[in-house]
Structure formats: C-alpha cells, structure tokens
Amino acid sequence: MPHASMMRQITDFANRADPYPVYEKLRGTPVLHEEEGGPYIISSYYDIKALLHDPRISSDAANLTAAGDDELARSEETGGLPPSFLRLDPPEHDRLRRIANSAFGPPHRPRRIESMQGDMREIVTGLIDGFGDAHEIDLVDQFAYPFPVTVICRLLGVPREDEPRFRAWVDPLVASLDPDTRQNGDADFQQTAQEARMQLGMYLAGLVEQRTKEPRDDLLSDLVNSRGPDGAMTMMEVLSTSVLLLIAGHETTVNLITNGMLTLLRHPDILRRLREEPGLSVRIVEELLRYEPPVQLVPQRTCIADIEVRGITIPKGSRIWLVLAAGNRDPERFEDPQRFDPDRGDIQHLGFGSGIHSCFGAPLARLETQIALSELARRLRDPRLVEDPPPYRPNAVLRGPRHLRIAFEGLD
Amino acid sequence: MAADQVEWLRREGRIVIVGASLSGLRAAETLRAEGFAGELTLIGDEPHEPYDRPPLSKSVLLGMASPQHTELPHRWEIDAKWRLGVAASGLDPTAKRVRLADGDEVEYDRLLIATGVRARPWPKEEEARLDGVCLLRTREDAADLYRRLKAGPRRVFVIGAGFAGSEVASACREMGIPVTVAERAGAPLVGALGGVVGAVAADLATENGVDLRTHVTVTSLEGDPVGRVQAVHLSDESVVEADVVVVSLGSLRNTEWLSGSGLGAGPRGIACDAGCRAFDFRGIVTDDVFVAGDVARSPHALFGYQFLSLEHWGNAVAQAETAAHNMICHGADRRPHLWMPAFWSSMFGVNIKSVGVPPMGEQLMITQGSLAERRFVGVYGYQGRVVAAVAFDNTRWLEFYQRQIEQGAPFPVEHPTVDRRPEGRRPVPADFPDPSLPTHGPMVTLSGYSPADQQLVFHPARH
C-alpha cells in the first residue's frame, strides 16, 4: 500500500513505537479530511488549543454516535453506566464535574491530593523494595501498573484489605477497553471482563451505600454527601464517575510513568541529574507531558456548527480528531520540538488537554509521576534498557509500552 | 536612532524606571533579559520592594495571606539601584533628569514611567481623616483594613460598588460582618459590565447578605466626639451607622509630578503610542520617554484606535515587556502593545473574568449558560462585531471569545454553542450608563491664525 491514508498510519501498529514522523507528516496538512464521513484531523498546536476552547465543539456521546463514530472514539466506552462527565456537554458536564471537584481539590478539599503524598511514597517504596535481589524487572507489571490503581483505591476510600480484590477486577476491565484486545480477545476473556465489571460495580455500589450512611474522609463519601448547591450525585452518577476515575486515571498514569522511565533511560544525563536533584522531577514531568503525552489524540469531539480552521470549513456534524501529541511537537509553537529538554522555559503543553475537559486528575497524575520517577532514579543503581524500543500495547490513543525491561545493579 | 547609538545604549546607557510596582519590576527584568548591560535605577514612592496587589482585596482581608508577604517573585536578576520610599517630583525631558522629592536628581538616557494609580480619596478632607475611614490600594491599607475587620466592627460601609468595593463586601460577608454598599448607579459593576450583568452582581450581593443601596450617593460621613466615624449619610436622607467606611471610588492616575514637563500627561493618564513612547502635549511622540501600566493610555488598533487606559494586572505586565523591548531595540524591531484587555475578580464565591472592552458594547447576548444560574458567558457587540465577553464561573471558554474579538467576528452570535439557552438567542441592550458623565480631562487649544504662528496650548486639568 504505497499511499496508506494518514488515518491508517496513525492507527498502524507498526508506527506505535515512534509515531512522531507520522505526526510530522500530518502537520503538513494541518486540517486533514481524507474520506467522506471520516474525521477531520487537526494536528497543529494553535488549532488544537483553539478547538479545545470552542463552544461549537461537543463532547456529548450522543452527538458522536449521530456523527458515526469510529474505532478510536469507541475505545473508552464504559458499558451499561450513564455517560461520565468526560462524554457530556455543559450544563450536565459542569454540574457533575463541580461535584467531583468539590470532593477532590480546592476550594473545598485543598489538601486531598497533597495529603496523599505520604501514601504515594509508601506505595512506591513498597513496590521498589519488592524488586528484591533481582537485577532485571519489568517496570510495567512490577511498578507502573500496580501503583496508580492502589492510589485510586486510597483516594476513593477502598479499605486496604479489599485492595487486592479490587485490583483483580480492574485489571481485566482495563484490558478489555483496549480496542485491540477487544477485537482479538477470546470468549473466555470477554466473559472474565464482563464478570469483573459486574463485580466491581456491585462492590462499589455496596461501598457507596456504606459511605452514604457513615461518611469518612474519602472521595466516595464526599461525592454522595455533597451538600453544595448542585446537590449530591445519584448512585449511578457516582458509579460512572468512579469508573471514569479508574479508567482515565489508570492507563494514562501507567503510560506516563513508563514513557517517563523510557525517556530518561534514553537521556542518561538527565536521569543522572534527577538522581542528584529530585526537585527536577517537576520540570521533567511537564516536559514528558509534552514530549510523550499519555493521551496521544482526542477522537471524541463533534462540531455542532460549521467551523472554519485555516480557511477550511469543517461542516456541522463532522467528527474531529485533535492530535495532542502532534501539537505538542509543533515547531510553530515550540523551539526545537523534537528535543526532550526539561529546562525549556516555555512549556504550555497539551498533555492534559485544555478547556472544560482538561484532565480532571492532572494534579494527582503529576504528583504520582514526580514521586515515581524521582524514587526510581534515586534507588535503581546504574539502570539501563534491556531492549529499545520496548514492545508496545496496541492502543493508538492511550499509547505506551506493554513491557519495559530494565536491568540494574541493585537497589540503593 | 542610529545603530551604533542603540549598541552604546545597550552596553552602557542609563535607564531610569519611575514606579517600582508590577510594571516597573517586569520592565526591569525584561531589559536585563534582553541584554541591557547599562545602569538601571528604579524609583518608587512606597518603601517596599514590588509587591502584588490583587490579593490585598481578597485573601489578605480574610487573613489567608499576610499583607507583608505578597512580594512579586523575581523572574530575572535585575541588578538595579533601588531608590525606594522617595517619590519622583518632577521631570526635565530636555536635560533628561528626574527630580526626586528629597531634592536629588537622577539622569537618564531612557526613561520609563510606570507610576500607576492611587485610590481616589473621600473628597471632604476633614471627613476623610476620621478614624475608621479607609482606602484600599497599598499593603498598609490592606493591613489596616484587615485589622479593623478582625476586630469585629458592628457594620462596614463600602462607598462604591465597583470591583474593589464588591470584593471588600464579599470579604466582610465571608467573615460574617454586616456590610452596606452604596452605589450611584443601579447595580454593582455597571460601569465595567453594564446593567444586565450588573443586575446579576446585585442579586449575588443581596443573596449573600449585603445591604445594597443603589441610585444613592453618600453625602457626608459623621464622626463621634473623639474623631471616629460612626454614621454615613445618604442622598436619600437615610443614615447608616457604621464603624468602618471603605472608600472605593476608583483611582487617580499618578501624573501630577509631570506637570510642566511638557508630556501629554493628565488625570486620564499619559498618552503614548502603541510602541509605549510618550506623547508630548502637542501630540508628538518622544524618543526617550516610555510609559507602561495603569498610568498609560495607548491606542488599540482592535478597538478603533481608541486610547485605552487599563487598570489590569495582565496589561501592566505585557505593556512593561513591550516598553522595555522597544527602549533598547532598533526602530525596525519595535513591537506594538496589542494586549487584549482582560481582567478577573472573585466575589461571593464566583469567578468573574472578562476579555475585550465591555463598555464599548451596545448589546449583549448570553451565549452559554444562564443569568439566573449565575453561570454564563455574555458577549458584547458593537456595530455588528464582537468586542468583549464576560464569564461568571465559566472562564475556560474565554479564549474562544478572545479570538472572536481579534478576528472581528460578527455580532449577533448566530452559530450554535454548547449550553445555549432560549434567553441567549437574541441580543439585548447591554445597558451601560450614559458615557457623557462629566470628565476632568486636560484641554488642548489651538491659538493663532496663520499656519506659521499656530500653536497648541496645553491646559493641565485638576484631578
């Protein structure tokens, strides 16, 4: 196929390890529409930024279905539950997000994330200690995967003794959301995922009921007992919000940590600096969000009016893909964009999106990744990649390595 | 200016910045960041290093931040001579000298004026001196007001329901202090946002327990025998007892020190071109005197080349950066100051933000959300184009509207938007007060008959 469409090239697994040459080609046609009924693909920084703030763009799942969705857009469906605020427009979106936010951050809960630092460090230390005497690990399975799900358990308020059960349900559920596993998975796998979903739902429902009666200092209690002008969430709303936090906050953080370690191991000078200077992790994580964003593109938006971008009219009802990872390396916006440079002063990346749907869990993801990377840098003696590039997961949207084998000389 | 002169200036010239607040500091930093290696002097009448003012009417009044700890972070080492606690008292642009209140003189090759504004005091001096009558502009003002609020006054009276006055009222309510606000117009924020949005602000204040009196003015402040304020008399003949009175009547531009300098400076600020170069009173642009921040008035191409003076935090920063750049570059590299006017405020738990110039708007459309819910975006239109937008608890959309303003997008807003309600389908009058209020601008007159002896004469005005 000498002229594979750009859409195909984006989803083509052969480009997963390094999609950036495809994105560079893509930016040559910043508003790309390849086929009747297909999406308009937007790849330059300023256009993406503008559309993320454009009130003529809808995130409503119903509009997307009407526009005829595609394999990428479907990849985050949660099955059976009402749409979460990620897939809603204002005013419903705003109401749910406000309630969720009042349980999560300032002004109502200014210290909820900060106060989890101790827990996060403890989990990270436990996971690294767990490497034991090994001189080679798979960072994904042994660290990046278990870390965020444990953090989310603590955030929601899942009792510690239930954490292993909880994780056993989340793993197949997350795996089943990957479009590729969904297509290729056998009947048994689908069955397991379906059961996990049900059991997780029932478990959460039970916990919600408990927290309604006896509130504690956790997110679930706040969601169901919110007394603000917006009222509290219904049981179904709490469930879909919890599942959203689980799904959206899980895979993305896994990938951010894994991509982070991969990038640092490819830039040993910066890894060395981080070892000496843990505070550097703040800037490293920001640059990572630009350089290797865990969400590569946003495929779920539709236009509710004709919109003109760079002289091209995108007709009402069209779907658009916003390729964040392409915008993040747009030379029109960033100097020397292909270079990983935590010292760049100007780093307004699109890694967390922008506008009303900008990443809800951003403060949590930032802190988790800062702690994870600085601790890995501090404790792994002389780490190096066993294979480069590592094997990748099929998902083109939530892109990241399936395994990341790291060899090292022991722990500090 | 010849190229070698610019090089000389950058290497060993003398730059003086009068005004050591946000604009002055950011300009100094930009000068150094862009390679100015000469002598830099900052003159400020306040005794402090530059500090941030927005918190003074918000978190500082609530005791959540100390008035002594709002220093502005330094973004760049500026290696400057600081002349703090001494005001500039005069300017001789021919000799290129700034006179200081202590009699000293400072010479410059380039001058930046960033003297900003001060709070407009209560006009009756004797009443203004009563204990308990407060202004809010400086760190000391904030510390004093905070102390008085913390002492638990029986009632606070705020004169003027602009942004600062409304923020003070909001802080009082949050602390559980009874507060009365008097406003000459029909609602709070009317001058900035018009009557339709002002009505929302009025509801917001009233619902939060503010005793809001509109269409009234304060006629006098009454003191007790020991000189403490005890009551406020209003034009509707009512009397309100209060032991703290906050005078929030807007600001005065700090330009008196320039009288006689020949610059186009007066109560409305100092006129300058889009490159931040000051005009002299004849309307001729100067080469070595620049202006930035609240005290500047400069033409904005997007708004019909109107001279805008903006008391906005972001404008102070952006204009300082442009002025600094233009002070030390070659003519062809000069940049215009094209900042999009924008300001924010928060009161009674609501975030308010605006872009563009709302008072230019004749009509208003609520394109997202609803006035009744107090969460909305309102778009202002003037002669068929979008000129401004305001958001109540909906600020994330404003980037879009800013671009609409920049592109001269058509008004009314016909295209659909998410969360458009029936009330937002049609424009309504924005309801700004009659702009023909008395002004106190300076007057320039033409004298002489034949072109050869025609002269412009500048008549400075009183504040």
Automatic annotation (TrEMBL), chain A:
Q: Carries keyword Nucleotide-binding?
A: no
User: Where on the tree of life does the source sit, at the highest rank?
Assistant: Bacteria
Q: Which InterPro entries does the record match to this protein?
A: Cyt_P450, Cyt_P450_B, Cyt_P450_CS, Cyt_P450_sf
- What does the UniProt keyword field contain? Heme, Iron, Metal-binding, Monooxygenase, Oxidoreductase
- Annotated signal peptide: none
What family does the database annotate?
Belongs to the cytochrome P450 family.
Q: What is this protein called?
A: Cytochrome P450
TrEMBL record, chain B:
Specify the domain of life of the species encoding this protein.
Bacteria
Where is the segment annotated Disordered?
412-437
Keywords of this entry: FAD, Flavoprotein, Oxidoreductase
Q: Which Gene3D superfamilies match?
A: 3.30.390.30, FAD/NAD(P)-binding domain
The FAD/NAD(P)-binding domain, residue ranges = 14-320
**Span of domain Reductase C-terminal:** 343-412
Q: Name one Pfam family in it.
A: Pyr_redox_2
Q: Which cofactor does it need?
A: FAD
Renumbered to this chain, the Basic and acidic residues biased-composition regions fall at 416-428
- Which PANTHER family is this protein grouped with? APOPTOSIS-INDUCING FACTOR 1 (PTHR43557), RIESKE DOMAIN-CONTAINING PROTEIN-RELATED (PTHR43557:SF2)
Record-given protein name:
NAD(P)/FAD-dependent oxidoreductase
Native source species? Streptomyces musisoli
